[in-house]
Design brief:
By secondary structure, this protein is an alpha/beta fold.
């Protein structure tokens, strides 16, 4: 009561707020909702819900039709059994005569014969019939047998017993009559006659009820045990004395009395002829009967019993409703009603299922209809029923038609008028209209003067009637013209319309659609306005209407006469009223809540056929509002959107004439409860039944042409619980059953090859084929399935087991096939399966373990990704491939086991050769991994074990040679790694971001460590690279923030790009003597670096951003050997105070010292020629800069604060000009040189090599110019930049002079070897002890040095210092002849055949001359240690290896020691040959660089026999004295002089020319 008062107060408050303009009207409507308590105690009339009640009545009609079909079959069976019995009587009579027995005993014997007949059939050969098992419980056979063995009429039977020759007592007669009565009752039950309650008690005494909800029965028993003894007794009798073996019961109770026992023994004396007769003759006859008669006795009895349940529940529902309406509502009655109504729905559905099972093949259309209606009941529940009752009452409250105040209930109009109780919504529309006519009687001179919502006369009157009929106002705004219609059809639906000229026949057809209470709008012309009427019925000639009309005679002034009269079709068309004029029209409207209030509207005048718009056999649109729709059999196709969003249709009958159903044909039919598509339909369009939220059952056509269930066919059918899938189906498309949340099971035929598509719900797709079927528990994967679409079973949270077909070879791109299948724990695989497709079990969160079959050889990408509870998986030994190149980079499902966060250990299969990208990425609890040695390829994007923070133990199988790219990147639990001795390459990012990794051991076998291999390993403090490493990628130790100590390989000449970037604990840079270059970003953001001293290093170049962001850096000393700087080298070093630039630098690059805010002054060394843009930008404290006289260019925005800057330089220099142009203070100065220093004081150069010498001046801002000179230019030359060119062997002194000061460098020029050639590149020695003398030649021929011979494996072959090779053992080795870094090689194969002697290998003898201190042999020229700089700041390596071979040419002389010059000479291109006058030809070609000249050859034949040659240095030549009309062939090649000899390139393409005059 307290809640009721609060609700009323809240409603009043909301109404006040609405009047004040603060709350919208729709909020007020939602403020009050009728409760379930209100329905029972205050307005129980709402319990009579027509929508539900009418549907249940229709269900009972379908049951009765099904039972009639069963009865027909039963009658056929009984008639045949009669014939059988007549045949058996001959034998029985003979037996009776022989035994001397009377009629009564004969009758009993008749029972035994029938029993034997049945028993013989049951034990006969099963090949006699296909239905032997069905006869096992053939109750109907026994029942009919009793009928033929006894009198068919109870009275006659009793009389025959009394008059029989067997002297039976009265008690015996009564007993036999009782036996007959019970047997006859069974027969009546089969025909559904007699008392239903008695039938229930009898049947359930013998037959167990199957598939009934016993929980419901127990609840009913408990609920009614103390409330309703009658109903409780009936339920208890249903639940008691069950048995399923009726044959045993019948024999025990009916066929084995004492008399029969005696007769059996008598019959036995005369042999077994009756039994033989039964077996040999009757069995085949019975078999034929039951081939066509399918239902078993159990099925029939259960169907009848269920029907009795339904009647019992229905009667109880109606009884309780009457009690509520009579004011007898109470809590115990309400509880009874809830239970009974729920039981009513359950038994109704079960009965329909049972009857459908009995019908079987006897009438397919009846069976389909039963299953369809039974399926539709899936959406019927007590809760849904009560919600509908409450919502209808709440709607009336909101509209002002129903008012509840405490226990007082009144119904009023919106203006406060109390409505007569005849307006009860449970009455029919005829009763409602009659009540209105009683208040406003027609044809009695009554005048209506009022208005309704501002509307007067006919329109206002019609609006008033409309309101009383439907509880709502019809629209007030309309178009006042002949083609009348509402501007807004709110609250009404247009039924039909005629405009322009039309006939009486057309008017008749229009009104065939009308229902009582429809609104008629009509007008003649635009100026005549319109007339509004209420349709009340049809006559033989026209219609009757209820209206008021101002034109009626006798109306009171200002009023309209109320009438109900007939208007003929002809008058409406062209007669008195003539609405059928050129500008006239008639429109029929119906309230949109008509069906929910009145159902079919009494069905008196309604003809639904007029609502079907059919064009050439295609049903284009259905415009009706019937709950039960039967499509005409003239329809051959149902068009697109024909029933779209129909909210009232509950059932539709589709005829066999229909061949196709269009797209979205029934989409949004939210009241449609079931559908049975006939087998005639060959295609059903996309979304045909999508959003049919009440549909519980569906039958799809079973024919050869219907092979595809199209996209979204039943998507969103949340009540769909059962569906029959055709047996010949090939494909179920995406979203077909999406969100069918009531679907528990579905049987898919093995013919299906495709389920879903590539995308599922991605890219606005409709989703997976069975996505979010939350009650689906089990589904068979078809054996022929080849394609499994994305998201197919996504969100099937009740699915608990699945079997994977071996034929699945392709899967949808975005995976998620079983994602969010929270109950899926058991997976089995079809025998012989070899491949698990991509994303197969992606995101199956409940999987805990997987046992894969041994036949699997490949596991697709993302097959188990996201299985967060997967703890164990045994990968079969035969698996050779896991995942693909991309992992989650391209695929939507990720790596194979990506995100398996419960996986702790994995052992890769022994035969595994390929491990895909991201395979175990994100396995956050993975602790141990064993890597096999056969892995030879990893996915392109690697990251195999990235983001595995718990991974602490990595076991490598012996023989592994490479740690692939990013294999263990992000393994945040890894603390120590020891790379196996067999590994030669550590791939890029292999251990990147292993944040706990502290100790790394790299063996000498490693030759290559690629980019970022150990980047962001923030706990590494020390790192040692073995000297065997020849390749070190960029950023190997980038981001190692605790790194303090480093040892680089001695072979390394360059600090790789980004090598120590962001190593914030590094305090010193590496300046080992072999380092000649610091790469880009090498030390960027190393904030602990304080000083950089390069003056004693060999570093020649520093890359871009190399020291950018080194905020702790205060001083940099470059010495004088640094030649190049990259852009932004020291950008952002905001504590840098002092920098000493190298004298060798010629350019200060862009942004080199940008944002060095503490730099106050700087001296640009005298070799600097250019300062690029932004070089000193944002140097906020830069006060002074010295710019030398050689500087000729300064870039834009080079300095930021010009007003505080002072430039010092030489008067008249570019520096002064720049200062003047930019308004910068300038001071001219002359500062004498005090000392000159050179980068080298002694050099050894190879002939024809160059070297850049740099002079440093002290003080650095000296203004003297440096000049250069050579003491012997025949040996070495020097230009005025300090570049030395070695000319010939000898010694020269190079002098640099500045002012009065000089410095010198002694240059020795020698002739080094550039190539070595052996007379054999391979030899074969058969026996141990065999030898072969190798010889070596070299170039240039005047080179200095000694060749050293060496064997790679002296256990196979040895070599002495003369080149003699001797076989020592079996195998293959390499012999090398070397001088410095120049080598020649020969492969030696020793077959190892023993000659009986033993050769003990000894070290190769050393050369006779002692090696010089530079470790080169005596007489070997010392190569330059100082390389030349190339463009873009790259430091070139010393030339210590032979040049590439392009062409080998021998020019002059024959002999073993001829020198072969090796140079690269390009082939001539662009050869053109042109005729000239006087038998001449001009030859032209494209110029080549770095060559000495060209050789031209020409001849009168292609093979250039007797060819003539010319040698020139230009790119053209004229050939003279050629023969007339002769064809010549011409070719050209270039040559170069090397050590005085010509080395030729390849010939050009041959050109031919015919000589003219």
């Amino acid at each position: 009561m307290k809640k009721r008062v609060i609700a009323i107060l809240m409603t009043a408050i909301m109404c006040c707020l609405q009047l004040a303009g603060f709350v919208p009207a729709e909020k007020v409507k939602a403020a009050y909702s009728v409760t379930e308590e209100d329905i029972y105690y205050r307005c129980p009339e709402y319990l009579d819900n027509k929508a539900y009640d009418n549907y249940m009545v229709r269900c009972e009609e379908r049951i009765e039709k099904g039972m009639a079909t069963i009865n027909d079959a039963e009658g056929l069976g009984a008639s045949i059994l009669y014939s059988l019995q007549n045949g058996a009587n001959i034998i029985i009579s003979e037996l009776a005569s022989l035994a001397g027995i009377g009629q009564s005993t004969k009758d009993k014997l008749n029972k035994e014969v029938v029993y034997q007949l049945i028993q013989a059939y049951l034990s006969s050969d099963t090949s006699a019939t296909d239905t032997a098992s069905q006869i096992g419980n053939a109750y109907s056979t026994i029942s009919d047998a009793y009928n033929v063995a006894n009198a068919t009429d109870l009275y006659n039977y009793k009389e025959s017993l009394k008059s029989s020759s067997v002297n039976l007592s009265g008690n015996q007669v009564d007993k036999l009559v009782d036996m007959y009565t019970e047997a006859d009752t069974f027969s009546k039950i089969l025909g559904y006659a007699g008392d239903a309650q008695k039938a229930i008690k009898i049947i359930t005494a013998y037959i167990e009820m199957q598939d009934m909800d016993l929980v419901v029965l127990n609840k009913l028993d408990d609920a009614f045990s103390s409330m309703d003894s009658e109903f409780s007794g009936a339920i208890r009798s249903i639940m008691s004395d069950r048995t399923s073996d009726f044959l045993t019961f019948a024999k025990k109770n009916y066929l084995q009395d004492e008399v029969i026992k005696k007769m059996v023994s008598v019959v036995a004396k005369y042999g077994s002829s009756p039994v033989l007769f039964v077996k040999n003759v009757c069995t085949n006859i019975l078999g034929k009967i039951y081939k066509s008669f399918c239902p078993t006795a159990d099925q029939i009895i259960q169907a009848g019993m269920c029907q009795a349940y339904t009647y019992l529940a229905r009667n109880k529902v109606n009884q309780l409703r009457k009690e509520f309406k009579n004011g007898k509502a109470s809590e115990d009655k309400i509880e009874q009603y809830k239970l009974v109504y729920g039981f009513y729905i359950t038994t109704m559905k079960t009965t329909m299922d049972k009857v459908a099972g009995c019908v079987n093949g006897s009438d397919k259309s009846v069976k389909q209809a039963l299953k369809s209606w039974a399926g539709s009941l899936s959406g019927f529940t007590y809760a849904a029923y009560m919600e509908r009752c409450r919502s209808e009452a709440s709607a009336d409250v909101s509209a002002g038609r129903l008012k509840i105040s405490g226990n007082t209930v009144t119904r009023k109009t919106s203006d406060g008028t109390t409505i007569d109780e005849n307006y009860d919504s449970t009455e029919s529309i005829k009763a409602r209209l009659a009540a209105i006519k009683q208040k406003y009687p027609p044809n009695q001179g009554v005048t209506w003067k009022g208005d309704w919502g501002g509307a007067r006369q006919c329109f206002g009157f019609a609006r008033m009637v409309f309101y009383f009929l439907y509880g709502k106002n019809m629209p007030a705004n309309y178009y006042p013209n002949a083609c009348y219609q509402y501007q807004q059809n709110s609250g009404v639906n247009k039924v039909g319309q005629l405009t322009g000229n039309f006939t009486a026949a057309q008017v008749q057809q229009l009104f065939a659609q009308a229902k009582i209470g429809d609104v008629i709008q009509a007008s003649i012309t635009a100026s005549s306005g319109q007339h509004t009427m209420i349709f009340t019925g049809l006559t033989s000639k026209g219609i009757t209407v209820y209206d008021c009309n101002a034109a009626v005679n006798g109306c009171a002034p200002g009023g309209c006469g109320i009438n109900e009269w007939e208007r003929s079709y002809s008058e409406l068309a062209k007669g008195t009223y003539g609405y059928g004029s050129s500008n006239g029209g008639i429109t029929i409207y119906r309230a949109d809540n008509y069906a929910s209030i009145y159902g079919d509207g009494d069905d008196v005048f309604y003809d639904d056929s007029a609502n079907f718009i059919i064009e050439n056999g295609v049903l284009v649109k259905y415009t009706g509002w019937q709950p039960f729709v039967e499509i005409p059999d003239t329809v051959t196709a149902i068009g697109k959107e024909a029933f779209l969003n129909n909210k009232t249709m509950m059932y539709v009958l589709i005829p066999d004439s229909v061949k196709s159903i269009g797209e979205s044909a029934f989409k949004g039919c939210t009241s449609l409860l079931s559908v049975s598509v006939p087998d005639s339909v060959e295609s059903i369009g996309n979304s045909a039944f999508e959003g049919c939220t009440s549909m519980g059952y569906a039958y799809l056509p079973n024919n050869a042409k219907y092979t595809v269930i199209k996209s979204s066919l039943f998507r969103g059918c949340g009540c769909l619980a059962e569906i029959d899938i055709p047996s010949q189906l090939l494909e179920i498309k995406e979203g077909a059953f999406g969100n069918c949340s009531s679907l528990v099971s579905i049987e898919l035929p093995n013919s299906i090859e495709t389920l879903g598509d590539e995308y599922g719900p991605v890219a606005y797709g409709p989703g997976g084929a069975f996505q979010n079927c939350t009650l689906l528990q089990e589904i068979n994967i078809p054996k022929n399935l080849q394609f499994l679409g994305a998201y197919t079973f996504y969100g099937c949270s009740s699915l608990n087991n699945i079997c994977i077909s071996k034929n699945i070879t392709k899967t949808g791109y975005y995976g998620n096939f079983f994602a969010k299948c929270e109950s899926l724990e058991c997976i089995t695989f079809e025998e012989g399966i070899t491949y698990l497709p991509e994303g197969l079990f992606h995101n199956c969160a409940s999987l805990k373990e997987i046992d894969l079959p041994y036949t699997i050889t490949e596991i697709g990408n993302g097959a188990f990704s996201g299985c967060k509870n997967l703890k164990e998986i045994n990968l079969p030994r035969g698996v050779r491939k896991i995942g693909d190149n991309y992992g989650n980079v391209v695929s939507g499902v990720g790596g194979c086991f990506q995100g398996c966060i419960s996986l702790k250990e994995i052992r890769l299969p022994k035969e595994l050769m390929y491990l895909g990208a991201y395979s175990f990425n994100g396995c956050t609890n993975l602790e141990t991994v064993e890597i096999n040695k056969k892995i030879n390829e990893v996915g392109y994007y690697a990251n195999v074990f990235s983001n595995c923070p718990a991974l602490k133990t990595i076991l490598f199988e012996n023989g592994i040679t490479k740690i692939p790219n990013e294999l263990f990147a992000g393994c945040n639990g890894l603390k120590k790694i020891e790379i196996p001795q067999t590994v030669t390459v550590v791939g890029s990012g292999a251990f990147k971001n292993c944040i706990l990794l502290k100790e790394v051991k790299i063996p000498d076998s490693v030759k290559e460590i690629d980019a970022n291999a150990f980047a962001d390993c923030v706990n590494i403090e020390e790192f040692n690279f073995p000297d065997t490493i020849s390749i070190l990628g960029s950023g190997v130790l980038k981001g190692c923030t605790k790194l303090k100590k480093i040892r680089l390989p001695k072979t390394l000449t360059k600090i790789p790009n980004s090598m120590f970037m962001e190593c914030s604990s590094l305090e010193n840079i590496v300046t080992d003597e072999q380092i000649i270059e610091i790469g880009a970003f090498a030390y960027k953001d190393c904030v602990q670096l304080s000083k950089i001293d390069l003056k004693d290093s060999n570093v020649r170049g520093i890359g871009e951003y190399a020291f950018s962001g080194c905020s702790g850096l205060t001083k940099v000393d470059m010495g004088n050997q640094i030649e190049t700087l990259g852009d932004y080298t020291f950008e952002g070093c905001n504590n840098l105070e002092e920098i000493l630039l190298s004298a060798a630098i010629k350019i200060i690059p862009r942004g080199s010292f940008q944002a060095c805010s503490k730099l106050e002054n700087i001296i640009l060394t005298n070799g600097i020629q250019e300062v690029e843009e932004d070089a000193f930008k944002e140097c906020t404290n830069l006060r002074e800069i010295f710019i030398p006289y050689k500087t000729k260019k300064i870039g834009t925005l080079c300095f930021s604060y010009l007003d505080i800057l002072l430039i010092r330089g030489v008067a008249g220099s570019y520096a002064e000009q720049y200062a003047t142009e930019n308004d910068i203070a300038f001071v001219a100065q002359e500062i004498a040189t005090e000392e000159v220093t050179l980068t080298e004081t002694e050099l050894t150069l190879g002939r024809n090599t160059e070297y850049q010498l740099t002079a440093g001046l002290s003080p650095m801002d000296s203004t003297d110019e440096v000049t250069w000179s050579s003491s012997d230019e025949k040996v070495a030359k020097v230009d005025q930049t300090g570049k030395i060119q070695a000319i010939a062997a000898g010694t020269a002194v190079i002098t640099a002079k500045a002012g009065e000061k000089t410095a010198t460098c002694k240059v020795t020029v020698n002739i080094p070897m550039t190539s070595i050639y052996l007379n054999k590149t391979s030899i074969e020695l058969n026996s141990i002890g065999d030898s072969y003398q190798l010889s070596a030649s070299y170039s240039p021929s005047d080179a200095e040095g000694t060749i050293i011979w060496k064997s790679e494996d002296e256990g196979i072959a040895s070599v002495d210092q003369t080149g003699k090779v001797t076989a020592v053992g079996k195998g293959t080795t390499t012999i090398t002849a070397s001088c410095g870094n120049v080598i020649g090689t020969c492969t030696v194969v020793s077959k190892g055949v023993s000659n009986g002697s033993e050769i003990v290998p000894s070290p190769s003898p050393q050369p006779s001359l002692e090696p010089k201190p530079d470790n080169q042999p005596a007489n070997t020229p010392k190569p330059s240690l100082i390389p030349q700089l190339t463009t873009a700041g790259t430091v070139a390596q010393p030339s210590r290896t032979p040049m590439s071979i392009d062409q080998i040419s021998k020019d002059g002389g024959n002999g073993a020691n001829n020198t072969v010059a090796l140079v690269k000479i390009n082939k001539i291109k662009g050869l053109v040959v042109k005729n000239q006058k006087k038998f001449k030809v001009k030859v032209i070609w494209k110029k080549l660089t770095n060559i000495s000249g060209y050789q031209i050859q020409y001849a009168p034949n292609k093979k250039f026999k007797k060819a003539k040659s010319k040698t020139v240095k230009s790119t053209s030549v004229t050939l003279k004295k050629l023969k007339k009309k002769k064809t010549y062939f011409v070719r050209v090649r270039a040559y170069k002089l090397v050590d005085g000899k010509k080395v030729y390139g390849k010939w050009s393409a041959v050109k031919k020319v015919k000589i003219k005059k």
